Give the backbone structure.
Amino acid sequence: MELTAREIDIGTRSPTVLVNSDDAAELGVHPLDRVQLAWAGGRGVGIVETTDELVPAGELGVTRRLGHVSGTVEVTVAPHPDAVHYIRKKLDGIELERDEIDRIVTDIAEDRLSDIELAAYVVATYTRGLSLAETMHLTQCMTNAGHHLSWDVPVVADKHSIGGVAGNRVTPIVVSIVAAAGVTIPKTSSRAVTSPAGTADTMEVFCDVEFSTEEIREIVAETNGCLVWGGGVNLSPVDDKIIRAEMPLSLDPHGQLIASVLSKKRSAGSTHVIVDIPYGEGAKVADLNAARELADDFVRVGDHLGMTIECAITRGEVPVGRGIGPVLEARDVLATLDGNGPEELRLKSVRLAEILLDCCGREDVDATEILRSGRALATFRDIVAAQGGDPDVTLDDLPPGRHETTVSASRDGVVTHVDNRLVSDIARRAGAPRDKRAGIDLHRRVGDEVQTGDRLFTIYAESAAKLSDAERLQRKSEAVRVRTRDEALVEHV
């Protein structure tokens, strides 16, 4: 069937085409079927959506994901991608072969799967799991599907946290310590997906984070490190598409998580990586045994890829820093580098840096001394300058949002818990990460004694409406738990 192409300005992640219901009936296609397109400028495959109103009979609505399609288009029915068959196979609990995994990754990379089919893949890996062999194959295939960075040094360090802990902004501190020690550490990081801030969001408070491959090379040549957004260099792009499908139900399958992390690290040219695995109430990993199993699999898959992986299993029940949200976390980073930040953030950053340096063969380096001497701060300022920021930035240059409210203790007692998920949700309601100055500043830690009226935390926002929204959630929840001494003893029995 020949149809006349017309561009339709609707946002879709898949290469969607709108077909009038009458034309669809004549073609014999239904919503989410595929059609093969051929026009004077090229060929492609579109995923069908039918309409009675948006497109008249004889026309084909083409979305931007298909590129520029114009004029007369020959439209024929296309078969389902092979990946659909393999996804169904995985749903049935059958282990996939390497070539089947490669086909799934290729079809995801080429946008040949509908959103529903991609969601089915995520559900299959979540409910059926991935074997170690499948995880190894998936990691390699995802790595092959994107761009790669390479470096002229034998040791390239990197760091990753699997997430789930609020205020865990150790990465800029670790990178600064390791780079100051003379080890190459080109850190590519993500923006927030479901959290109030990612490393890239926090670094964007200080400087630019989007650079080309050549610009990243220049920054690293000058400073030994960088702190940039990984999405700007197209490392493991299949992972980004899978993450979008995981988001609505907050699914993070064990094998897919490993493939996600290590495909990006391998693509970035990393040879030695430390992976932070927090566990505990509210963290992504529930208990110590699960954390150990995950660590073992990270190491095995890393060995398969020729990478040296060290895992740090850390406690993740409560936030690490005081600030939650881009500017508030940036303040913690700068204060810690200057010797005045939250103690938990300093200790964790130093420990992770020590493990990574040992992993890289630099057991002679004292991470604590690099931080205490100011060398890490100087390196951080060099990186900020190389990335177009102000190297002389101070805490006074980083004020939080002008709309604020402080939550105080309603009773005498002891802080027994700070809920990672709740404080993150409140910070997001306040506007983080889009509003850089929005978030939460924690005034009390677990174990602190408080009296009625003592400050527990302050919520900051850039607009009064968002502050009110955050306050509504806060009133319905207990983000910071205060109990009497006797109640606290019972909680820990």
